[in-house]
Amino acid sequence: MKHSPVALLINRRTLLRQWSAGAVGLMFVSGKLPSALAADESRLLVHSKAPMNAEPLLPDLVRSWVTPVESFFIRSHGNTPEINADSFRLSVDGLVETPLTLSLAELGRFEQHAVTATLTCAGNRRSEHSRIKPVKGVQWREGAIGNAKWHGARLSDVLKKTGVRAEAKHVWFEGLDAVEDGGKTFAFGGSIPLEKALLDRDAIPGALLATTMNDKPLTADHGFPVRMVVPGYIGARSVKWLSKIVVSDRPSPNHFVADVYKLVDEGTLLEVAENAPIYRMPLNSAICTPTAGAALKPGRVEVAGYALPPGVPGVSIRKVEVSADQGRSWSEAKLTSPASEFCWQLWSVDIAVNSATKELIVRAIDSRGEAQPETVRWNAKGYLFNGWHHVPVK
Q1: What is d(CA 219, CA 226) in angstroms, rounded to the nearest whole number?
Q2: DSSP-derived 3-state class of residue 136
Q3: Which positions ≥6 away from 203 have C-beta within 8 Å?
Q4: Are 391 and 287 in contact, with CB atoms under 8 Å apart?
Q5: pLDDT digit string (tens) for the chain, length 394 residues
Q6: Distance in angstroms (rounded) separating the CA atoms of residues 366 and 352
Q7: Where are the domains of the chain?
Q8: CB of 248 closer than 8 Å to CB of 172
Q9: Quick one: which of 41, 209, 232, 262 has the fewest CB in 10 Å?
Q10: CA–CA dist 107, 127 (Å, integer)
Q11: Full-model pTM
């Protein structure tokens, strides 16, 4: 779906009209947008408030294919910045012929596109890594994931206007948040290969400079006024509060590309330096209802959850299976949402349980026939956990 070019100059009147005060209790003063989550934290499992890191309650997560903003996980590495929409500028430079500095209005004059895509934190299900051996970081359960409708200009269109030079291979992103680590303060950053950045087909989206989420301007916690959305990649590459784009011949040297979001066995400096950044998420699935510890009466019970394809063009979820007898037999679930390479697949199944049922297990199979692994290798940062999801029940 395409939208006619529209100037997205977001002023006080526009935002007050598009965000009803009764819905989320927002105030918008002097061009700045505060966090919208304080009034609705009862719907979230809050791991930390400064910075804000929270995930929805699992039954809420699978109520709809498009995740409501109030049920969308929040991942932040620094405090949420207050940004004046009127004075905001986005710079685009590096290995380009014509560097750009864009206001929101100028960004809005690019052709606007709509993309529905799932974002998930690389640390989703990290708490299951910690059951094997403790790892540092936010102890996410299964809720650091959400599927939303995003609107904005394609990164490819912006880059084409700059005239990307032949030696370019990567595109860096930098946000306006201030992250403190090791006595230093720096911005959160990400980068993606230029090949991904230049994709411009509706069927295979590359990256979007999103200004709206579910048909409303971004909230502060989700990156107001502009964020990257990179379908199929870990959420860390979808940088929030975007302020800078740099075209380069190498991946970004930003701490969160060069040091943090990497798979490492023990986390030694040599290992971190030698390993490549993480880009794609692996095939995954999780049960969202019943929740852990639920008391199930003998008979039949509805089990529901999500499955995530691996973000590879042409590869979607083919099948989801659930077991109530430690994996001896499996029941195929009904896929209840649209199939897409870059969105989660919701599913449900009516399954028989009895007094011997102590856990429910789910696994997914993609359209290539590749199955979600039963177990995964532990890693020092707790990333990309995608073993079969086990939910203990009574």
Answers
A1: 10
A2: coil
A3: 313
A4: yes
A5: 333 233 333 333 333 333 333 232 222 333 444 444 443 677 899 999 999 999 999 999 999 999 999 999 999 999 999 999 999 999 999 999 999 999 999 999 999 999 999 999 999 999 999 999 999 999 999 999 999 999 999 999 999 999 999 999 999 999 999 999 888 999 999 999 999 999 987 778 899 999 999 999 999 999 999 999 999 999 999 999 999 999 999 999 999 999 999 999 998 999 999 999 999 999 999 999 999 999 999 999 999 999 999 999 999 999 999 999 999 999 999 999 999 999 999 999 999 999 999 999 999 999 999 999 999 999 999 999 999 999 999 9
A6: 25
A7: 2-274, 284-392
A8: yes
A9: 41
A10: 40
A11: 0.89
Distance CA 79, CA 81 (A): 6
Per the structure block, which two tokens stand in for 117?
Answer: 């895509």
Tokens of 323: 């077991």
Distance (Å, whole) CA 364 – CA 375: 13
- Tell me if 317 sits within 8 A of 370, measured CB to CB: no
Q: Residue 333: count other Cβ atoms within 10 Å of its Cβ.
A: 24
**What would be the CATH architecture of the domain defined by 284-392?**
Sandwich (2.60)
Residue 256 is given by DSSP the state: I
In sequence order, what are the beta bridge partners of 74?
54
Matching CATH number, 2-274, of 3.10.560.10, 3.90.420.10, 3.90.230.10, 1.10.1670.10:
3.90.420.10
